[in-house]
Structure prediction request, 458 residues.
Amino acid sequence: MANERPYSSQVVDGVEQAPSRAMLYPTGFKKEDFSKPQIGIASTWSMVTPCNMHINELAEAAAMGADEAGAKSVLFNTITVSDGISMGTPGMRYSLVSREVIADSIETVVGAQGFDGFVAIGGCDKNMPACGIAIARMNRPSVFVYGGTILPGEHNGKSLDVVSVFEAIGAEANNKIPLKELKSIESKAIPGPGSCGGMYTANTMASAIEAMGMSLSNSSAQAAVSGQKLKDCEAAGNAVMKLVKKGITPKMIMTKKAFENAMTVAIALGGSTNLVLHLLAMAHCIGVKLSLDDFTRIGKRVPMLADLKPSGRYSMADLIEIGGIQPLMKVLLDAGLLHGDCLTVTGKTLRQNLAKVKPYPNTQDIIRALDNPIKADSHLVILKGNLAPEGGVAKISGHEGLRFEGRARVYNSSDAALKAIMDRKIRKGDVVVIRNEGPKGGPGMQEMLSHTGALMGQ
Prediction:
């Protein structure tokens, strides 16, 4: 599909496509637009989640950037769902499936309309890798834009995020806080648009995709509601037009080395275990051979440096204040942990992009020095054993210890496990095992933040 004739030619087998033009005039096309490259703007805007409620404005900024660069932008939408809202209900079974639906829908529109290139804007756990999968499948000049992180809430001088609510539920169930305080935390935790504020899946994937070279520099470290993010979107529309002119496609960027860069940066940041699931899918779609063993190989040499939530103290908003992820990438590059020769959507190499990046301020303690890591190797640990013969992933940052032994409390469903936790049947030293909740078993690989949050709260 990547090699089909561009739609903007308006000629198929020597025949002028007058009906096509007739249908596009009412959408805002002018006569001169038919000689321009057409750039699709894939928006995941939706009012079902704060992660994506602002993306319509970002999409318009990206469209403006493409138009200003001499293209004709065409904006279209796809669905999204919210893990945070569906979590703990049967609706969570749709979450991982939604990734495929979103990827399919973007591919369908880009392929059917024959766009010369496109911008894909994502802002939540599954629609972000979905954009990456669609970019990989279509292999047309394209840029991914992250919708941006949410600003933290505040309660009694303490910053809040979505997991604060889960923890408060557990604390209230264990009579540690009154119901009134739980309600107050609930109303303050999500103050506006943007993705969950810690190094959860959204910020992890944004950082990984930037490190891979498929986002513009610093796109992953911008607040959702900011002038910086609007400029990033406008620049992305402009960048796609440049990629079209230079003939730069995702296959030239999303190489094995680029995926290794993505893994390296995400490990240093203490990123989500979902990174493994999504990078494997994106690699498969672009034709790169990536396996669980690669995560173990890279993890042996890359330390965890970021003191970010959920395992640490700080939010993505705090990291933005000190410079985002670019100074970290420069440190990793200088230490020989990143492949600097990888091409990026700027049209330059990663090394060129990072050449003038300034270091973090000396006073910050969010990102540790290489010789003083939180953990000397990866927190994303690939496990193999009789419970997971083909491999499993654990997030072990070092705070919890490195060896675990205890009585297994085994539950056959997410609901049964959560009920036991809320009924305070889990004791210190127990190991909670929840069966039948993988990609097939759930189905959909339901997330368990409500469970872990309730346990932490207790």
About this structure: The chain is about 40% helix and 10% strand. The CA atoms of residues 103 and 130 lie 5 Å apart. The longest strand covers residues 388-395. The chain has a mean pLDDT of 92.
